[in-house]
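Translate sequence into structure tokens.
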Amino acid sequence: MTIPLKITQIGNSLGVILPKEMLAALKVSKGDTLICSETQNGYELSPYDPEVSKQLDAGREFMKEYRDTLRALAK
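Result follows.
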């Protein structure tokens, strides 16, 4: 599905209006947070999930704590 989005002025900023079909497909509504991730094929929008954020933070902390061990294993 390809949906063209138009950049518009919102106050002193620029923004994009998401059509109802896209909001329904993302299962989000007014006030929800979206995550924009860069991928090999461009950018991807996905709903913000606090549980995933906690898991990513835990993984980053683990990698920071065991940086030397992970580096040695990568050789």
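Note: DSSP finds three helices and four strands in the chain.
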